[in-house]
Prior knowledge:
This protein is α+β, with helices and mostly antiparallel strands and 121 residues long. It is built from three helices and four strands. The chain has a four-stranded antiparallel β-sheet.
Amino acid sequence: MLYExxxxxxxxxPLLVHKEAKELALTIGKLVIRNKGVVREVxxxxxxxxxxxxxxxxxxxxxxxxxxxxxxxxxxxxREILRSxxxxxxxxxxxxxxxxxxxxxxxxxxxxxxxxxxxxx
Length: 121
């Protein structure tokens, strides 16, 4: 099944803004590939200030590194990804969406819309 993950990773070091997001995407990608899944696309959406102060593991966050990942995996792997995202202190927020690829619309449409929205800002 095709899934789309939108996540916000913490920015632990201001000099290495995307370090946590890269490590998080690598961790999820390895989990998908080890379980015979396929990572289709990873798009970094950049570092942006959060709309409000968000807390994770009693740590306040003001900025976040946003990214979107499109991957195929089984439902058991999807549950494992959700469990690991929930327990990972690097993740501020995450949203996992099942994409219905049997429809006639483009699979990566939300990724393309997000990139277009960032270019107009």
